[in-house]
Specification:
about 190 residues, alpha+beta, 6 helices, about 25% helix, elongated
Length: about 190
């Protein structure tokens, strides 16, 4: 495919495509990444795992620039990854000390579906209301945790799976991350 054809499919100029290729433009917004994946018929993970695109900016790296695949039946993907520190653009403020993840092919989670992207900060305890990556009975889940006035926490999913109230000190799951930011494919 020519640069001009790709540019038309993505909705940018062919000069922009050239700037992306050369690294002159170092940050590509999520909307454009999604458009690129559609135009190139690939996943966000495949697009960003290429070394030339993976190094979106040598000076503005997040702690882990590779997009990791989440699979419910496998362990936490970043527990085997090494990390680097990075810059502080608006995107980096959202993703600093985070791992960028997307569900693996044919996987989906509550609040995160195939093609979506999330910045997950490693943590091991409930800190504030929000979305958390949990490991329960050997499976990864994304659930909304909310602090209740009683000192307990409410655990809920996006799907109609019910709501449970659990002890903050001894929950029946392991908290492995906090979802700091997420981008949904539209």
């Amino acid at each position: 495919m020519s640069k001009a054809a790709l540019a038309r499919r993505v909705g940018v100029s062919d000069v922009t495509i050239s700037y992306w290729e050369s690294g002159t433009i170092k940050q590509i917004g999520h909307e454009r990444l999604v458009a690129l994946t559609s135009a190139l018929n690939c996943s966000i993970k495949q697009l960003l795992d290429d070394d030339s695109l993976n190094a979106i900016s040598a000076t503005s790296r997040t702690s882990s620039t590779a997009v990791l695949s989440l699979q419910a039946h496998l362990g936490v993907p970043w527990e085997q990854q090494e990390t680097e520190t990075g810059g502080m653009s608006t995107l980096q403020m959202l993703t600093r000390d985070c791992h960028l993840v997307t569900p693996a092919e044919n996987e989906s989670f509550d609040f995160l579906f195939e093609g979506d992207l999330a910045a997950i900060a490693t943590c091991d305890r409930f800190q504030q209301d929000g979305l958390y990556l949990l490991e329960r009975e050997g499976l990864l889940q994304i659930q909304y945790l909310e602090h209740l006035a009683s000192g307990r926490m409410r655990v809920s999913g996006e799907q109609l799976q019910g709501v449970t109230v659990e002890s903050v000190r001894h929950p029946p799951f392991r908290i492995v991350g906090y979802v700091r930011a997420r981008w949904c494919r539209q």
